[in-house]
Design goal:
Elements: E1 2-8, E2 16-24, E3 27-33, E4 45-47, E5 51-55, E6 57-62, H1 79-90, H2 95-111, E7 114-121, E8 137-144, H3 153-166, E9 173-178, H4 186-199, E10 203-207, H5 211-219, H6 223-230, H7 243-249, E11 257-261, H8 269-275, E12 279-282, H9 284-290, H10 297-303, E13 307-309, H11 329-339, H12 345-351, H13 354-359, E14 377-381, H14 389-395, E15 402-405, E16 408-411
Parallel strand pairs: 1-4, 1-5, 6-7, 7-8, 8-9, 10-11, 11-12, 12-13
Antiparallel strand pairs: 1-2, 2-3, 5-14, 14-15, 15-16
Helix pairs in contact: 3-4, 5-6, 12-14
């Protein structure tokens, strides 16, 4: 089919006024001006009218399991207080609660323009059933911890690998997620790194998220260090450098790794991340919820780090008035723009499309409108002028007008 729109925004090329995208099966065949289109009788033309047609958004970090916790946990005074609060909150949840929460989150993302999401899965028993219930493309990163359970790292990883090997799907895939340096043992980090490299898997890990975590690893002190020590964590891996340096020491940095948050940097950390080609995922609304130190976007970008955006979970998103927050990448883009006047709307959109695609190993396959890329597109209403088109995208609020994933309508256009 051929899709015509007021503005085509390929992201990797200049905007096209009165443009068209030619789709063949699940791929894009061409992106061009409407005047250059020569449709054949076999091709169905769909004029979407007054819209911007752009790539589907890539959410590089989410916790779909926790969607129904929206507004339930007030912002804490300290990060460790939040860990205790969510742990207590989860004790009352059943399998059905997690399934309902996951599906609600997937629906929210779909309606607000996400087509691919990197989700941290703490309930692998939900898979693959929930996969089949959404048209989204899902990367389910299986969460691994081990400190509290006192389980051997090799057993934790063996179980995760067995789960992954049993999960086969043409659109969705499983991956590995050692939760964070403070909640996993060094051996699990090393084993994960070696297994992921051998199997060519992606890895997602929370790192340097809070000042407390940074103090724990850099200086062997602070509330997190003392709390985990009381819970019998072997803290002999502390006082040896920053959390990022800790990952480097245990070989868990690399082109296949998504480092989530990275809110606290030591000298040399940005260079370590850039040289190893590790991707960094920033979650603006979650960052605001915890009042973390300023995200050092410029420092990371100047070092050459690939920066992406994610929603994190609704358990770490502020409630505004009586309205509960929803998972929405447009809201994350606006939050970044509001908090960082040095970043352009165009760069923010790249963080939410091509950069996220690169982090997930899908560069040139999603996150852009170009020949041979996957046919993942969204349409948002637009009646303005082409000038300032990127700012107009960031200003969009509410549901998208249409969504296409792998050449199939996930949200069909109304007209």
């Amino acid at each position: 089919m051929i899709l015509r729109a007021k503005i085509i925004l390929p992201v990797t090329a200049p905007p096209i006024e009165d443009g068209a995208v030619l789709i063949d099966g699940h791929k894009i065949r061409a992106v061009t001006a409407w005047k250059d289109v020569r449709p054949h009788l076999r091709e169905k033309v769909r004029d979407l009218g007054e819209v911007i047609l752009l790539p589907g958004l890539v959410n590089a970090h989410c916790h779909l399991d926790y969607t129904d916790m929206a507004g339930e946990l007030p912002p804490p005074k300290a990060f460790t207080d939040w860990i205790a609060a969510i742990t207590a909150h989860k004790t009352g949840w059943s399998y059905s609660d997690y399934a309902r929460s996951w599906l609600r989150g997937a629906h929210q993302l779909l309606k607000t323009g996400t087509t691919t999401v990197a989700d941290i899965e703490c309930m692998p028993d939900l898979l693959p059933e929930v996969w089949d219930a959404t048209p989204l493309r899902i990367f389910s990163f299986l969460e691994m911890t081990g400190i509290k359970a006192r389980r051997a790292p090799k057993d934790i990883l063996r179980e995760a690998v067995a789960t992954m090997d049993a999960l086969k799907h043409h659109r969705h895939r499983a991956a590995l997620s050692p939760h964070a340096p403070y909640s996993t043992l060094p051996e699990l980090l090393r084993l994960t790194a070696h297994t992921a490299e051998k199997r060519k898997w992606r890895v997602s890990i929370h790192v340097a998220e809070s000042v407390q975590e940074f103090e724990m690893f850099a200086h062997a002190r602070g509330a997190m260090h003392d709390w985990l020590k009381r819970n019998e964590r072997d803290n002999s891996d502390c006082s040896l450098g920053s959390p990022v340096a800790h990952l480097a020491r245990h070989e868990l940095l690399g082109e296949n790794v998504l480092a989530i948050h990275v809110n606290c940097l030591a000298r040399g950390d940005a260079t370590l991340l850039a040289k190893s080609k590790t991707h960094v995922v920033h979650c603006p609304r979650s960052h605001d919820y915890f009042r973390h130190p300023k995200f050092e976007r410029e420092r990371l970008a100047n070092a050459g780090v690939n920066l992406c955006l994610g929603t994190d979970s609704l358990a770490t998103t502020r409630k505004t008035g009586k309205q509960k927050p929803e998972l929405d990448m447009f809201a994350e883009m606006r939050a970044l723009a509001d908090g960082d006047p040095t970043v352009s709307p165009e760069e923010i959109l790249r963080m939410t499309t091509v950069n996220g695609a690169r982090a997930l190993g899908l560069a040139k396959k999603i996150g852009e409108l170009s020949a041979n890329a996957g046919a993942d597109l969204i349409a948002i209403p637009f009646s303005g002028k082409p000038a300032g088109i990127y700012a107009a995208v960031l200003a969009h609020s509410g549901h998208v007008a249409a969504s296409l994933i792998e050449g199939r309508w996930a949200i069909p256009p109304i007209s």
